Amino acid sequence: MRRNIFTKKTAHFAALSLAACMSMGLLSGCGASETSSDPAAESGSSESAAEGGEEGSGEGAHIGIIFTEAGLSGNSFNDLALEGVKQAAEEYGITYDQVEPKSVSDEEIVQDEMAASGEYDLIICVGEEQVDALTNVATMYPEQNFALLDANVDLENVASYSCKEQEGAFLAGALAVLAKQEKASDLMGDGKTVGFIGGVDNPLINRFAAGYQAGAQHIDPETEVLIDYAGGFNDPTTAKTIANTFAERGADVIFHAAGASGMGMFQAAEETGFVAIGVNLNQNDIAPDYIMASMLKRLDSCAYHAITSIVEGTFAGGQQVLGLADGGVDVTVENSNIQVSNEVMSQIEEIKEKIISGEIEVPSELK
Predict the structure, then answer these.
(1) I need a labelling partner for 354 at 20 to 30 A (CA). Which of 53, 178, 195, 346 fits?
(2) Backbone Cα Rg of the chain
(3) What is the CATH architecture of 2-163?
(4) What angle do CA 316, 86, 42 make, to 5 degrees?
């Protein structure tokens, strides 16, 4: 059930946001309903538990979420984070306001307005691009609780959520080799070579690479894992070139952690003929005949965990890292036309349980 932002609880921030929108034109898409013509809805939105459902133990908790400048554009990190907030709204009865800043510079303005209002039990900020702004604002408002998704700010009132990318990538690597062994696709040959394309060569991306390599070699130690980097996250041309080179060297399953650059890898898969694995979100339906699976990085789980800490009174600043045990990462074959057998997926589930139990230790650095 949706309601306008202008409630007793949120009137202060609504006035601030509306004034900012009208006088400076800073905030775009502030409301949850993109089709609403109501000026109140345009300045922000709040959503409560589903109509007819029982209100959860968190009744009265009010959450703010500030997206990256990319906004809500369908199947993005922002959309995923919002899903976690919606889940919390349904289960706990919390209300929330969501804001889509026009630019990175506007993010600090929105953060400051929300914090100054004193109306939010938690303010969630999405992405690395909000780190500098949040460092300033959280320092100015030490009593305000913040959550930062997919980045880190070292302050007592900021809970910084990240994921164990290596654990999800381990599953992707294991799946790649298991699927090759059973010839899940005619695009797979008898060779023992797979590939990984990263956006840049840094510790974060190398956690993906290390996990993928370890997962593949866990199934078959003789597997060769080709690794290269596009040099950026918006260079599909370079990623396509790397993918074609990998295919020439015998890699018939290639996994990317390269952002928009990965679209070049998908294009190469369709043109050259190899199997691809997507990342972060379920990318399988982009090219379902060629994309077998996607490694999921669950920002929805991060947002949900952050709100749960408010509802249960367990909020604590510092770094919160979610892995398989917390639902922070996973792998999915949904929406792919490449049929992976139930036997293979059962093996993936067994591997998942061994990682959770500690029987399998997943490296976070390339060897």
Answers:
(1) 195
(2) 22
(3) 3-Layer(aba) Sandwich (3.40)
(4) 105
Kindly give the pairing relationship between strand 122-126 and strand 253-257: unpaired
* Amino acid making up residue 210: A
CA distance 128 to 197: 21
Q: How far apart are the C-alpha atoms of 335 and 338, rounded to whole Å? A: 9
Would you state the pLDDT for residue 13? 38
Angle of CA points 179, 77, 308, to nearest 5°: 100
To the nearest 5 percent, what fractions of the chain are helix, strand and coil? 45, 20, 35
The residue extents of the domains of the chain are 2-163, 165-297+327-357
Evaluate whether 206 touches 223 at the Cβ level (below 8 Å).
no
pLDDT digits (tens, 9 = 90+) for 224-250: 999 999 999 889 999 999 999 999 999
User: pLDDT digit string (tens) for 291-307?
Assistant: 999 999 999 999 999 99
Enter the tokens of residue 120: 């939010």
